Amino acid sequence: MVKDLEVRHCRALVALADTGGVAAAARALGLSQSTVSETLLSLERVLGGAVTVRRPGREAALTAAAEALLPQARALIAASEAARSAFGAAGRGRLRLGTVESISSFLLPAPLSAFRARWPEVEVRVAVGLCEDLRRRVGRGELDAAITIEGAAGEDAGGLSRRLAPSQLRLVVRPGDPLAGRRADRADLAQRSLLLADPDGAFNGLLRAWFGPAARTLRLDSAGSIDGVKRGVFDGDAVGVLPGYAVAEELAAGALASLTVREPLPEIALRLTTPTATLAPPLGALVAEVAAALDAA
User: Fold this and answer.
1) pTM for this entry
2) 135 vs 30: which has the higher pLDDT
3) Alpha-carbon distance 73 to 69, whole Å?
C-alpha cells in the first residue's frame, strides 16, 4: 500500500523550518511537542529517510533532502487551505429557487427546514410563478433553479430540465356531489365547471388535450389560488383540479372526495430546471431533500 504525504506532515516540516526547533514548532502549531515529533517520524517513514539531524546541545535541524522538500510542502498546505476556502464559500451565499404555489405551500416547507439546518449560512429565496415563466428566469440567470409541476411527457432539455418525481392529478368534489362514488367520464365532466388555481398554468393545456374535441365547450374557471379552488369546491358545485399532494389532507379527512374517472387522467410530474447539468453542493442538497420528501409522501 502506498503511503501518501499528508498535510499534517507538511505543516510540521514547515513549522520546524520556520521556527528552528521542535518545541517552537509545537507552540506555533498549537500541538504538544510529542505530537510534532511523532508527525516528523511518520513523515520519515513515508519518505523512507531522515528529515531531521540531531546536533549536540542544539535543536534538531532539517536535512538537505528535507530542505529541498519545503517548496512542495508549502504548496500542498496552500492547496489544502484553498480547497477548504472553496468548500466554505460553497456553503455560504444565496440560493434563488423558483416554484409554483402548490409546491411552495405543500412540498417545500419540510425540505427547506431540513436544508436550513444543514446549510445555515445559505439564504434561500423562493419565488412563486408560472412554470414557463420560471424556466425562462432560470435561462436569464435570475433564478438558480426552478421546480415546476407539468405534464409527465415533457422533454428533458440536455440535462437542464429533467424529471424530478412523478405526481398525480386529482379531480375533487364535495363528498355529497352526484359524481362522488361512481365512475365519471369526459361527458360528465364537460357539463361541470372545472376550477383551477391559475388559468395560464400547465393544467389548462393538459386538460384541453385530454378532453379533445369536447374542449371547445369546456368551462375552465380560475380561483386564483389553491385555497381558492378548495373553497370553490366546498361552497359550490365546481370540480377542483389539483395535484394530489395539495389536497391529500382533505381527502384523508373525508372533507373532499376524489373522482374516479373512466379514462386515465393526464400524467403529471415535478420537473427541475437548472442553468447547467451539474448541481453545486447547496442546490444539490436542497434537491435531495425535496426528492426525499416526495418519496416519503
Assistant:
1) 0.65
2) 135
3) 6
